[in-house]
């Protein structure tokens, strides 16, 4: 019996909440958002028909609070709850709570979530169903001695994995027996902290493997299909960065075999709704091994939507209403190529350190036509760029949640067409106020190994120094543009910058990160010259308005973007985006401290303190760890010395740039 959904509560935030809201509204369903105290003005709240407050910023007290979510759904009379991804999406207890409350859960049964959420149990079920699994050990004996014995049988290298884990947590690569004991201890500690379950398993590490996953759909009428594969091999810290469909290394016969195995995996646990079966894939032999099943919608689902023309969220809602799948396996067609890049507020040059702050400018190229717009594009039905964003200009990137702010997805007739279209879109993105990985992503898309389809899951880590170089230093051209946008002058005044002795230089003292820059500038009518060290550069300002400066330099006309927030200037010219703090008139000592201090790189919670006052430390030694945005950031000593003071204890909430420790000179 069909149960139409008239009101849908989205138990999530950010871009996935906005994505679900879009499809719900297109179907005439009332979209209800939930929000924490940190998200009162968030984009998903603005786009929903109604929004319900559910608690403080901490996820455990809001987006992970099952009782609060169910209460919100009851309050608005929601017929169904869509969990999105992350948060409660793979919690069997949440699916059970929805069922108990008489609210449809837009996802699989709780039993399927539980079966696939336990990696050890999942391996056993997949083996029984005939789904290929890598050699491994998932037994009840968790002693180090048993793991040593099993690792010797499997053969190194091996992967230690949390049995109840996901998202890359509780995982360690072990190259040889001498590394096993430390890897087991570290993975167990991380698993207990993240999942409350320290059980581990071993799997043979497939060297040079690709991460290939199959999208499946199953309804309540016994129908199940797959929608082809996605290649998600470009990863860092086991987190996906770029995904594509189809895979450049999977042949037609292997695609059919993997798809059939994925459907069998879903049937083996009584699956219903949308899910993804992930495999490790060995290109040279076309062999594949079951990795895990994600019992939810995936972050990268748009690439499948663009090559199939299907709206996966709409199909999820159909299945939740009790409808049978409207097509069979023979009806699924893959058209062209789609590639997605995950845009994060993070700094690749600083170890992908998550960034927080206000988005002074957030301007992405977009053709916002929804998940199937590629088939409706007017002039070129095989070319499309899609943006799924969870923020807009003026929004704050919070330290409480994952730093993913948007996804850019390009479709093309060929892989190269999609790849280059996406790289160009990332080049055109203007994001000021918060550092992002946009230049890093554009570089990856143009990288020779990725262009040839040769990048495996370890590629980014191996080539990181080349792929994420330190940004170019501030130049005299940056100084000239900064002066043009900081100075109070009229472009149409031919005497701008003049006095009785002609044009004169004025000093500029700018803070860029931890660097204090002493520079000079001259304004002579529309011409602005910046001096930095022995270098200088001149620009002719042609127009300055609406956060844009159009200028001529070396005979070429260019455009830079900028935003001013008090004494802070955000600037994006031909090079990387810069943020300057104008210290020209600041009192002495107002800038950040130097090499004696250890500061919090962002707001977060102190996870561990590894030293005490009086301890002698070496440069690079980890002193304190701060947890933020689901990651642990280790703070190292900037030089040799002695810990003079500590201002942090485990559990403390610390603000960005807060001084956590000070060093005194090393004692003789």
TrEMBL record:
Residues 123-321 form the ATP-grasp domain. Keywords: ATP-binding, Biotin, Ligase, Nucleotide-binding, Transit peptide. Residues 4-465 form the Biotin carboxylation domain. GO terms for molecular function: ATP binding; ligase activity; metal ion binding. It comes from Amphiplicatus metriothermophilus. The keyword ATP-binding applies. It comes from the Bacteria. Its cofactor is biotin. Residues 589-664 form the Lipoyl-binding domain. This is Geranyl-CoA carboxylase alpha subunit. Pfam families: Biotin_carb_C, Biotin_carb_N, Biotin_lipoyl, CPSase_L_D2. SMART domains: Biotin_carb_C.
């Amino acid at each position: 019996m069909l149960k139409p959904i008239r009101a849908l509560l989205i138990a999530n935030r950010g871009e996935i909440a906005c994505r679900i809201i879009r499809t719900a509204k297109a179907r005439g369903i009332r979209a209800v958002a939930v929000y924490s105290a940190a998200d009162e003005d968030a984009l998903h709240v603005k786009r929903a028909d109604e929004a319900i407050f559910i608690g403080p910023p901490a996820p455990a007290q809001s987006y992970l609070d099952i009782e609060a979510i169910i209460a919100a759904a009851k309050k608005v009379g929601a017929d169904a709850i869509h969990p999105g991804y992350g948060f409660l999406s793979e919690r069997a207890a949440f699916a059970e709570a929805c069922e108990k409350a008489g609210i449809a859960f837009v996802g699989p049964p709780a039993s399927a979530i539980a079966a696939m959420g336990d990696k050890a149990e999942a391996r056993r079920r997949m083996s029984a169903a005939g789904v290929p699994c890598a050699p491994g050990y998932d037994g009840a004996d968790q002693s180090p001695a048993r793991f040593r014995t099993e690792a010797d049988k499997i053969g190194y290298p091996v992967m230690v994995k949390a049995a109840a884990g996901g998202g890359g947590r509780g995982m360690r690569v072990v190259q040889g027996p001498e590394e096993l004991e430390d890897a087991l201890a570290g993975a167990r500690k991380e698993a207990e902290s993240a999942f409350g379950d320290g059980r581990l398993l071993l799997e043979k590490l497939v060297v040079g493997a690709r991460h290939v996953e199959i999208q499946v759909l199953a309804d309540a009428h016994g129908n199940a299909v797959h929608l082809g594969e996605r290649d998600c091999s470009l990863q860092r810290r086991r987190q996906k960065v770029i995904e594509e469909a189809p895979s450049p290394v999977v042949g037609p016969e292997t695609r059919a075999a993997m798809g059939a195995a994925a459907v069998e995996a879903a049937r083996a646990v009584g699956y219903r709704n949308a899910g993804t079966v992930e495999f490790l894939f060995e290109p040279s032999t076309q062999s594949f091994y079951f990795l895990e099943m994600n019992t939810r919608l995936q972050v990268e689902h748009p690439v499948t939507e663009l090559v199939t023309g299907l709206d996966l969220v709409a199909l999820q809602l159909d299945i939740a209403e009790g409808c049978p799948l409207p097509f069979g396996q023979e009806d699924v067609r893959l058209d062209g190529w789609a590639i997605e890049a995950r845009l994060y507020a993070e700094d690749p040059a600083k170890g992908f350190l998550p960034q927080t702050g206000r988005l002074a400018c957030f301007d992405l190229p977009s053709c916002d036509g929804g998940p199937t717009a590629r088939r409706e594009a007017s002039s070129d039905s095989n070319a499309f760029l899609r943006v799924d964003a969870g923020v807009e200009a003026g929004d704050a990137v919070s330290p409480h949640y994952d730093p993913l702010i948007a996804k850019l997805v390009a479709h093309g007739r060929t892989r190269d067409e999609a790849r280059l279209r996406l790289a160009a879109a990332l080049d055109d993105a203007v994001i000021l106020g918060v550092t992002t990985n946009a230049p890093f992503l554009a570089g990856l898309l143009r990288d020779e190994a990725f262009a040839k389809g040769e990048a495996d899951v370890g590629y980014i880590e191996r080539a990181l120094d080349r792929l994420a170089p330190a940004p170019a230093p501030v130049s005299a051209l940056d100084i000239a543009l900064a002066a043009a946008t900081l100075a109070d002058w009229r472009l149409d005044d031919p005497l701008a910058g003049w006095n009785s002795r002609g044009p004169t230089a004025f000093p500029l003292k700018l803070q860029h990160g931890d660097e204090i820059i002493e520079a000079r500038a001259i304004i002579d009518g529309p011409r602005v010259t910046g001096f930095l060290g022995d270098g200088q550069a001149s620009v002719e300002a042609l127009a300055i308005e609406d956060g844009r400066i159009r200028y001529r330099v070396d005979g070429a006309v260019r455009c830079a973007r900028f935003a001013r927030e008090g004494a802070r200037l955000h600037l994006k010219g031909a090079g990387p985006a810069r943020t300057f703090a104008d210290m020209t008139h600041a009192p002495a000592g107002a800038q950040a401290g130097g090499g004696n201090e250890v500061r919090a790189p962002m707001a977060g919670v102190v996870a561990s303190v590894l030293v005490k006052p009086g301890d002698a430390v070496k440069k690079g030694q980890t002193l304190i760890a701060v947890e933020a945005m689901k990651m642990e950031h280790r703070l190292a000593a900037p030089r040799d010395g002695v810990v003079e003071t500590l201002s942090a204890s485990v559990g403390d909430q610390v603000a960005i740039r807060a001084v956590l420790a000070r060093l005194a000179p090393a004692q003789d």
